[in-house]
Amino acid sequence: MAERARSFDRVAEEYERARPEYPPTVLDGLPLTGDAEVLDLGAGTGKLTRLLTQRYRRVIAVEPLDGMRAILERVVPDAESRAGSAEAIPLADCSVDGVFAGQAFHWFANDEAIAEIARVLRPGGVLCLIWNEPDGGRPSPLPEQYLAYLEELHRGAFDAAPPWHDVIARGPFGEVRECSVPHDHLLDRAGVLDNARSVSWVASRAKEERELIMRRLGELIGDGPFAIPNRANIMWAVRA
Question: Residue 136 falls within a domain, yes or no?
């Protein structure tokens, strides 16, 4: 798992170019005011961070990978960038009103990370997980063979993880709430291929295998552009 996570530094620029953003409405239902101080944990290249800086007074972005963090610092200069991890957050106790994880919680869905998140959150603060996934209720413009090959590559990439509700429930948090926001991810052909290149279950493979995979994906995709149906999912709970 650690090696797969580190593979993102190989494809940090592709990640920044081709991964979807988050619609601003994902933040609308959270009990946080504009004066809040918040943490983006596992911030990557700042896909969620840039949205948080538009909404909250102070945003701290913690990212363990140097390559990803360098892009974050370039594209989201308003955030305070720090090296660190979910299991060792470089903040004092009770120092933030919200902790966010965008497309990252599956990398640290464990009791040690939950304990650290609870430590840095003020009482009444919010833990919020946000992640994009394909919207299965709407047809994809991508060819069926392309999608089938991606699914074949993805199958078995991750070990079974405990339900996130259960992980959060073991910490000092109240009721877990959920909702989702549909949106489209607009990409041209190069963007679709960069998106595939940037996922850990492709990026972590040997160079020769990655090249073969990308050649095959290129054979299966047309010119675009593509409006890919996505859902931004939100899961949040308040610290007791």
Answer: yes
Classified as helix, coil or strand, 225 is coil
Render 52-117 in DSSP notation, one character per residue. Answer: HHHHSSEEEEE-S-HHHHHHHHHH-TTSEEE--BTTB-SS-TT-EEEEEEES-GGGS-SHHHHHHH
Under a CB-based contact definition with an 8 Å cutoff, are residues 127 and 178 in contact? no
pLDDT-derived band at 24, boundaries 50, 70, 90: very high
Token look-up 């109240």 returns 174
User: Which is more confidently placed, 153 or 41?
Assistant: 41
What range does the domain containing 174 cover?
2-140+160-186+230-238
Into how many domains does the chain fold? 1
For residue 199, tell me if it sits in a domain: no
Contacts of residues 168-171 at CB distance under 8 Å and 24 or more positions apart, as own/partner, are 168/114, 168/127, 168/235, 168/237, 170/111, 170/114, 171/111, 171/114, 171/115, 171/117, 171/118
User: Which of these, 86, 112, 81, lies nearest to 99 by C-alpha position?
Assistant: 86
Supply the DSSP symbol for 30: S
Q: How far, CA to CA in Å, does 160 sit from each of 42, 106, 149, 157, 163?
A: 20, 10, 21, 10, 9
The amino acid that residue 2 corresponds to is A
Tell whether pTM > 0.90.
Answer: yes
> Which tokens in the block code for residue 146?
């392309």
> Is position 224 within any domain?
no
* Predicted local distance difference test score (pLDDT) of residue 107: 86
